[in-house]
Amino acid sequence: MDRLTSEGESINESMTSHHHMLATIFKEWKRLRKRNGKKSLQALDKLAEQLLLHIEIEEKIIFPIYEITFTGSAAVTPILKQQHTRIKEYLNTIRKRMPTGLGESFGLDTEFARLLDVHNATEEYAVYPWIDELVGSEENEMVFSILDSFCWNQLNRNSGRFQEE
Predict the structure, then answer these.
(1) Count of domains forming the chain
(2) What is the pLDDT of residues 46-90, one digit of tens each?
(3) Which of 3, 60, 104, 129 has a CA positioned 20 to 30 A from the CA of residue 67?
(4) Which range marks the domain in which residue 69 is found?
(5) Is residue 4 in some structural domain?
(6) Torsions phi, psi of 6, nearest 5?
């Protein structure tokens, strides 16, 4: 894939599609983690890499566009950024517990899944559609160009591996 987006796709469609891809990786990790082996850690690393990239895209590109129009009490981005922090904390905690088999203990993976579901729904219904409304087709293509360039630069910089923060 040489682009994050498909021709003619809206920002909402593109980012929602990325949420679906992340959900697929999450399900694969959950399936593999019961074996708690190398493949499980690789799936978690892939999930973390893609989630961290997604978060960075939102905080550096998507949210600033949204915040041009919505500020103060109307803005949901402060809450979403707090959730991003929690997502990163879950990733780190799960990664640390995986070798000991405690990654699923105390419902940690269920809480993580719930957080992701609520977070994604908020973005898909309160943020992305508004961005599509705010930007025209010419600006939309410019945003996609920035997203694609940013994504490839980040993936190349990170060499595809999740590093604990």
Answers:
(1) 1
(2) 999 999 989 988 998 889 888 887 766 567 899 999 999 999 999
(3) 3
(4) 11-158
(5) no
(6) -105, 150
Q: Alpha-carbon distance 159 to 165, whole Å?
A: 16
Rounded to the nearest 10 degrees, the angle between the axes of helix 11-33 and helix 137-158 is 30
Is the entire prediction scored with pTM above 0.85? Answer: no
Assigned domain for 163 exists: no
DSSP notation for 15-61: HHHHHHHHHHHHHHHHHHHTTTSHHHHHHHHHHHHHHHHHHHHIIII
Sign of the dihedral through C-alpha 44, 86, 55, 163? negative
Sorted by sequence, the CB contacts under 8 Å of residue 83 that are 6+ apart come out as 115, 118, 119
Query: What is the largest distance, in Å, between two alpha-carbon atoms of the chain?
Result: 51
Q: Is 151 inside any structural domain?
A: yes
**Alpha carbons 78 and 51: distance in angstroms, whole number:** 18
Q: Count of residues for the chain?
A: 165
